[in-house]
Amino acid sequence: MLQAKNISKSFGVKRVFQNLNITVKQGEVTVLMGQNGSGKSTCLRSLALLEKIDSGQIMLDGTSVNASDVNMYPKITVVFQQLFLWPHLTNRENITLAVQGTPYQKQLDELIEFLDLKEFIDQYPNQSSLGQKQRVAIARALILNPQYLLLDEITSALDDRQTEVIVEILKDLKKRKIGILLVTHHKVVAKQLADKLVYI
In this structure, are strands 2-11 and 14-24 parallel, antiparallel, or unpaired? Predict the structure, then answer.
């Protein structure tokens, strides 16, 4: 279980959130919603230990953790709204970059099948549609075998059909017992996926 317990965060005099509590369980989807500027992305970054909180605790399986706890990685992985795919690498190379030097081919083959990447796996990101790039970014996170997947507005720029594809993928990941924190403003997606809904 991944938890934020009474966490608070400010940037200078601007308070982003105070005493916020969030729980992400394996095999469940926790959806985080709120107005623009409410701190959703900052909360996600805090849970991933990419943003230092002012107070409170981030807990992983009952133990308080911080950014120096290397054992957290790759238990928790993040897919950002901007995706951050390397443009000079193929989609295949982007996916496998973090696992070079370790056996990964079997798992990559499974991800190519699971996420239907075959037609564009050896293209470059700029040759791929946004929906395809979203799946590549998810594959890059999943090849690390995470227990928890944190997703920041990954359907925000997709059309309805592409969004449906991502929703079905997330439903399958839930069945695989991956805990998902989904930051979204998309009420239909939230209704389709949420086991727990948190507003900030």
Answer: antiparallel
